[in-house]
Amino acid sequence: MNNYSKWEEFLSTEITDWYNTSIGKIFCNRQEKNRPELPLLSVTGVGGVIDRDTLERRDTSNADKSKYLSVCKGDIVYNTMRMWQGVSGSVPKDGLVSPAYTVLKPNHSITSDYAKHLFKDERLIQIFHKYSQGLVDDTLNLKFENLSSIKVKIPPLTEQQKIASILNSLDKVIETTKKQIDKLLDLKKASINEFMTKGIGHSEFKDSELGRIPKSWKITTLENIGDFTKGKGISKKETTLEGIPCIRYAEIYTEYNYVIDKFKSFILSETKKTTKKLKTNDIIFAGSGETVDEIGKSVAFVSNFDAYVGGDTIIFSPNIECDSVFLSYQLNDDSTRIQLRKFGQGSSVIHVYTSGIKQLKIGLPPIVEQNKITEFLLSYTKTINAKRNKLTQTQSLKKSLMQDLLIGKVRIKKD
Question: Which mean pLDDT values do the consecutive 10-residue runs of the chain (415 residues) have?
């Protein structure tokens, strides 16, 4: 059953104290203008209604704000051309929004806090899509006169408030967790820069062609500390959902950061004959990228089981005692990537070849220090992954609760 059918079934179901109505009966279309002194707000798909100046994208608003729509705290605003994608939110303060938005003023029978969650319901969003006008998705728009006829079923105000309170509390956990992840990522990035230039516990430094580095570190090229081979092609049709792990070129960009810790693709036994087997502590470079800044991203393979690597990759196998995870951080550091850019060739697709990667220069600490740096950085990764798991679980819990609470499948007990 599709979301449209689910919504129709919900509307036809009798739920104690809930009643059917239309959006036009619980909202009116606020069209007030000529308040240019108010702050400019914007509607986002994930963050709801926020201050326009907090967005990183370029400000394309008109200097003359006299024709912009004024909104009041508690209104609901939606992007007229993207309501079918769920781009709406509750207004946190008085302000202005683009005339491309539609402003809804709730009446006494619905709370703004409840409505902002209701309008994110996947089943209702499908109805928004059905009522939007346009030949293709890119031109669809949902004007108020069409929105107003859409049927909804809503609970009493007290139940609306309790439902909104539960979902709002989960939103706060989600927002807090996202901020914690962002902070940890910033700390990790700063730590990588610190470790790759100053190491751990050094008091003596020396000037070098790579800049100022600890005195005990040596400068070397990759050619002097390892051997190079090339990956062999694994086409998409040769991959399976299970079998022998493999790494394909594009996955180096999309699936991994520094270390191969999971596998998305697998091959059957017979494919092994035409591809390249990895060794523990190998480092795999992507052989091309769309821009010069992308070329040569690398990841370390530290597992001790069989895995294979596809084409458009370059494999570096250290032949001295070294920590390949440390090397992966070193090779993806900004200072090394500056070197990589010099070896990029091509226009629409930028390639990097073994001859260039061999010349990359790095500052190499003693193995004990390499291990310590890796331990520190992997501890950040472990903490970040734990936070990401918490975020995913909370988002899943919210989605599940929305599916139940917004159609009365789970009721909130009365006080």
Answer: 81 94 97 89 90 73 81 96 94 94 96 96 94 90 96 96 97 96 94 92 92 94 95 86 89 89 87 88 90 85 90 93 94 88 86 93 95 94 95 97 94 75
Contact assessment for residue 76 and residue 83, using Cβ atoms and an 8 Å cutoff: no
Residue 162 lies in a domain: no
149 and 228 housed in the same domain: no
Distance CA 287, CA 50 (A): 41
| Three-state DSSP class for residue 280 | coil
Tokens representing residue 180 in the block: 């914690």
17 and 95 co-located in one domain:
yes
Question: How far, in Å, CA of 287 to CA of 351, rounded?
Answer: 6
Burial 312-322 (b: 16+ CB within 10 A, else e): bbbbbbbeeeb
In a domain, 234, yes or no: yes
Last residue of a domain, one of 318, 344, 364: 364
Structure tokens at 131: 């009522």
Distance CA 234, CA 119 (A): 44
Strands (DSSP E) contained in 143-297 are: 151-154, 205-208, 211-214, 218-221, 226-230, 239-240, 244-247, 265-267, 276-277, 282-286, 288-289
Asked if 238 and 325 sit in the same domain, the reply is yes
The overall average pLDDT reported for the chain is 91
Summarize pLDDT for 216-263 with one digit per residue, the tens. 999 999 999 999 999 888 888 888 888 999 998 888 888 888 999 888
186-214 pLDDT, tens per residue?
A: 999 999 989 999 999 999 999 998 989 99
- CATH number, domain with residue 12: 3.90.220.20
Do the domain assignments include residue 197?
no
pTM of the model as a whole? 0.84
